[in-house]
């Protein structure tokens, strides 16, 4: 499995295409236990905001936000595939759906660590 320094990611139908600069390969591949990630089941990896460029289909992306409305989750309107999201825990990064990377088999990354998204520190309320 070769992760290129500049890699292409696509949704299932190909309507959305991302160009990713991955100078350090897949950074921090993980699953998360938050309600959203549990249901979508994707392995995510981190990329700085400036290292993700939408090269095709920006108009075909739809935004979903929930709970604190901080994270921005993007999905293809046509096929419904989650491509990436701007992270709540680090808003200077996107998390990308590793399964969308062209030529990458996400199953080859197993085992993948699981982040505790159920007890997210940004959910804490100071009393």
From TrEMBL:
<comment type="similarity">
    <text>Belongs to the Gfa family.</text>
</comment>
<keyword id="KW-0862">Zinc</keyword>
<dbReference type="InterPro" id="IPR052355">
    <property type="entry name" value="CENP-V-like"/>
</dbReference>
<feature type="domain" description="CENP-V/GFA">
    <location>
        <begin position="7"/>
        <end position="116"/>
    </location>
</feature>
<dbReference type="InterPro" id="IPR006913">
    <property type="entry name" value="CENP-V/GFA"/>
</dbReference>
<dbReference type="InterPro" id="IPR011057">
    <property type="entry name" value="Mss4-like_sf"/>
</dbReference>
<protein>
    <submittedName>
        <fullName>GFA family protein</fullName>
    </submittedName>
</protein>
<dbReference type="Pfam" id="PF04828">
    <property type="entry name" value="GFA"/>
</dbReference>
<keyword id="KW-0479">Metal-binding</keyword>
């Amino acid at each position: 499995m070769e992760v290129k320094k500049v890699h292409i990611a696509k949704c299932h139908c190909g309507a959305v295409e991302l160009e990713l600069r991955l100078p350090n390969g897949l950074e921090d591949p993980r699953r998360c236990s938050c309600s959203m990630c549990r249901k979508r089941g994707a392995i995510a990896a981190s990329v700085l905001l400036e290292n993700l460029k939408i090269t095709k289909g920006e108009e075909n992306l739809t935004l979903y936000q929930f709970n604190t409305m901080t994270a921005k989750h993007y999905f293809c309107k046509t096929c419904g595939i989650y491509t990436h999201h701007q992270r709540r825990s680090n808003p200077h990064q996107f998390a990308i759906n590793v399964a969308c990377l062209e030529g990458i088999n996400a199953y080859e990354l197993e085992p993948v660590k699981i982040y505790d998204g159920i007890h997210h520190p940004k959910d804490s309320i100071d009393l």
